Amino acid sequence: MIKTCFATAMLALVAATAAKAGVIYPNPGTENPTTYSFTATANGSLVAYFYGSGASFSESLGLLVNGQDRGTALDNHISAYGEMYNFGNVSVGDTLVFYIDVKTTGHTYYSDIKMNPDGVNHIYSTAFAGNGKIPAGTYVGFEDLSLHQTGWTDNNYTDEQFVFTVAAVPEPSTWAMMILGFAGVGFLAYRRRNWALTAA
Questions:
Q1: What is the reported pLDDT for 4?
Q2: How many Cβ atoms from other residues are within 10 Å of residue 24's Cβ?
Q3: Number of C-beta neighbours around residue 153 at 10 A
Q4: 100 within domain boundaries
Q5: Distance, CA of 138 to CA of 140 (rounded, Å)
Q6: Same domain, yes or no, for 182 and 132?
Q7: Same domain flag for 163 and 194
Q8: Cβ atoms within 10 A of the Cβ of 193, count?
Q9: Residue 81 is part of which domain span?
Q10: C-alpha distances in angstroms, 102 versus 18, 146, 156, 184?
Q11: Do 136 and 53 fall within a single domain?
Q12: What is the number of structural domains in the chain?
């Protein structure tokens, strides 16, 4: 009985780990040579989903939209896999700069390399196909160490990991059509009920 419970618990742990596995920086130990810039490609709510963290430092994720700070969320030691945070609405063409606020060291690192005081790339990003817990979107993994500021780095880009999406907000005309559709269905149900009462 104990062996069965232990085996079941191990299978659940392996399944949970396998569900999260898949996005790994391909060259750990070396700085990512690819730089990124993020621009909103749709109108809607920018939602970030916590993917994981391999950091001992405490940190949280933040967002600048066109230079305006939207605050921080998704603390790496508290957030659960798949936990989401809505950073508010963005519009097509908005410039998006993600950052991590490393509370342990007091440093802040940005997805825009030009904003980093050490001039180092602190992110790795790739497309994310989605799974049962996190929808398809853009994966971003941050590195919270800097050779110039902390004296060493591991360049694994797993210290604050998340996937972001922009969920479309329906246009006013779409809302109007939906409301008219519901009103039409309600009217038909009302008429059918009255017709059934008259026929009886």
A1: 37
A2: 13
A3: 18
A4: yes
A5: 7
A6: no
A7: no
A8: 10
A9: 38-169
A10: 28, 12, 16, 54
A11: yes
A12: 2
Check residues 79 and 6 and name the one with the higher pLDDT: 79
Tokens representing residue 38 in the block: 């993020």
The answer to whether residues 119 and 181 belong to one domain is: no
In this prediction, residue 36 has a pLDDT band, given cuts at 50, 70 and 90, of very high
Are 58 and 110 in the same domain?
A: yes
> If DSSP codes are grouped into helix, strand and coil, which group holds residue 196?
helix
53, two tokens: 């963290």
pLDDT for the residue numbered 59: 97
In this predicted model, what pLDDT tens digit does every residue of 113-142 receive, in sequence order? 999 999 999 999 999 999 989 999 999 999
What's the average model confidence in pLDDT over 171-180? 61
Show the tokens assigned to 104.
């342990």
Query: Is the Cβ–Cβ distance between 65 and 95 less than 8 Å?
Result: yes
Partners of 26 in the beta sheet?
none
**Total-model pTM:** 0.76
Query: Does any domain span residue 20?
Result: no
- Kindly state whether residues 143 and 55 are assigned to the same domain: yes
For the domain that residue 54 is a member of, what is the CATH number? 2.60.120.400
CB atoms within 10 A of CB 15: 9
Q: Are residues 179 and 165 in the same domain?
A: no
What would the two tokens of residue 192 be? Answer: 């059918």
* CB burial of residue 195 (10 Å; 0-12, 13-18, 19+): exposed
